[in-house]
Amino acid sequence: MATGVHGCRCRGRHPQDTFAQLIMGITERVGQAVRIETAGNSGICGVRFTPGKSYILTGKKRSDGIRETDSCDFISQLNNLSPYQSFYLFTRGSYSYNRNCRRKCKIGPESKGCGYQQENEYNKTTECLDNKALCKREGRQCRWVNSETCYPIYVITRTSP
């Protein structure tokens, strides 16, 4: 008798972190058809793609040459990328995911300059950081840039004794 149920479970990751951790990217020319394998359903991390749509995604290339992805990877229809994400992905300068990944900017709950976690019930901060922010190295430190509107505003009210 089974004692538990196991399904798809992913750790929340910023798109920059996803690209930095990538072992082997799936890269093809724009407009080129690509065969991608994925699990059969979302319960086991499978992904459904709409034929005819263009996607930007991460995944792996297996030793047999077959490309695969799952719902834990970064997947977005090309026209759904934010202007910030498009810029960070498709440039090579100091404001690119590519350069800042190579410069070892760490993103996560333990990061000193680029903290990232599912921190509120609606994940608004996380979603904003995904769409707008870049973890950029400046000197010896990494810090979020373009994140000014992402942090929740806490209102503290004082009550009299």
Summarize the structure in words.
- It is a single chain.
- About 20% of the residues lie in helices and about 15% in strands.
- With about 160 residues, it is of the alpha+beta class.
- It has a single domain (about 15-145), classed as Beta Barrel (OB fold (Dihydrolipoamide Acetyltransferase, E2P)), CATH 2.40.50.
- The strands form three sheets. A three-stranded mixed β-sheet has the order 1-4-3, with no helix packed on it.
- The radius of gyration is 18 Å and the shape is globular.
- Residues about 155-160 have low confidence and may be disordered.
- This is NTR domain-containing protein.
Secondary-structure blueprint of this entry?
Blueprint: H1 15-21, E1 36-37, E2 55-57, E3 60-61, E4 67-68, E5 75-77, H2 83-90, H3 97-102, H4 124-132, E6 134-138, E7 141-145
Parallel strand pairs: 1-4
Antiparallel strand pairs: 2-5, 3-4, 6-7
